[in-house]
From TrEMBL:
Protein name, as recorded: DUF1827 family protein
InterPro entries recorded: DUF1827, LMG18311-like_sf
Top-level taxonomic group: Bacteria
Family annotation (Pfam families): DUF1827
Source species of the chain: Lactobacillus amylovorus subsp. animalium
Length: 96
């Protein structure tokens, strides 16, 4: 198993970030690359949302676990996973 690297690519997605900030209650948005899986992290005063997207293949379980460990390490509360049928998009939601 090769190690995974989370790379901050927020600067490449300024339109997406601006749109999230303007159209949702998010007050913090980050975009990461995890190999060929995109990770969009949004935070509002009440919740954290993380979306993992891969248009080429299913999002793997180890990728989901890695993201939860890396991005939710300060939250012990439970999270909700939403998985689309194809497993190309997985959303993680945490109430603060």
């Amino acid at each position: 198993m090769k190690s995974m690297h989370l790379i901050d690519v927020t600067n490449n997605y300024s339109d997406l970030v601006q749109s999230q900030l303007n159209t949702t209650d998010a007050n913090y948005v980050k975009v990461y690359s995890l190999g060929n899986t995109s990770v969009i992290y949004t935070e509002s005063k009440n919740a954290i949302g993380i979306a993992l997207e891969n248009h080429n293949r299913r999002v793997r379980e180890d990728e989901v676990e890695f993201i939860i460990k890396r991005l939710l390490k300060n939250y012990d509360s439970s999270y909700t996973l939403t998985v689309d049928k194809s497993r190309h998009v997985i959303e993680i939601h945490v109430d603060k």
